[in-house]
Design brief:
The protein is an alpha/beta fold and 149 residues long. The protein contains five helices and five strands; from the N terminus they run H-H-E-H-E-E-E-H-E-H. The protein has a five-stranded mixed sheet with strand order 3-2-4-1-5. Strand 2 and strand 3 form a beta hairpin. Helix 2 crosses helix 3 and helix 4 crosses helix 5. The radius of gyration is 14 Å and the shape is globular. The N and C termini lie far apart (34 Å). 27% of the residues are buried. This is DEAD/DEAH box helicase. Keywords: ATP-binding, Helicase, Hydrolase, Nucleotide-binding. InterPro entries: DEAD/DEAH_box_helicase_dom, Helicase_ATP-bd, P-loop_NTPase.
Length: 149
Amino acid sequence: MNSLPIDEVLPALRDALANRHEAVLEAPPGAGKTTRVPLALLNEPWLGGQTILMLEPRRLAARAAAERLASELGEKVGETVGYRIRLDSKVGPNTRIEVVTEGILTRRLQDDPALDGVGLLIFDEFHVLPHSPKYPEILSKLRAFSCQK
């Protein structure tokens, strides 16, 4: 695996999430945020085997991210890494990283505000989210989620 700029900050990110349970990571495009971070955090002890949800605002990007992450593990989508987008999903019983779009996340938060079984929520392409009509609802549901966790 080739080195990417994000690799330098992964230890600090692990530490921040283990100690403060939240972090903001900003890096230029191509630094490895989408492809490295979820895999680097997958086996962290504080995650306790729970799922990582990664929000990708666009369906094509969600599918592509899942395919790339699965490829990095030498697997097919639907094994350790899967995705859920409108009208399509590839997840399995062993899926631990789910790449989802905002509509899927919104529906999941409505059905299960505590996000049971989810240990980490990653917002990829966060700068796009405030322009979404679902942004206020996601934000309000996340406030409830963070209070319950």
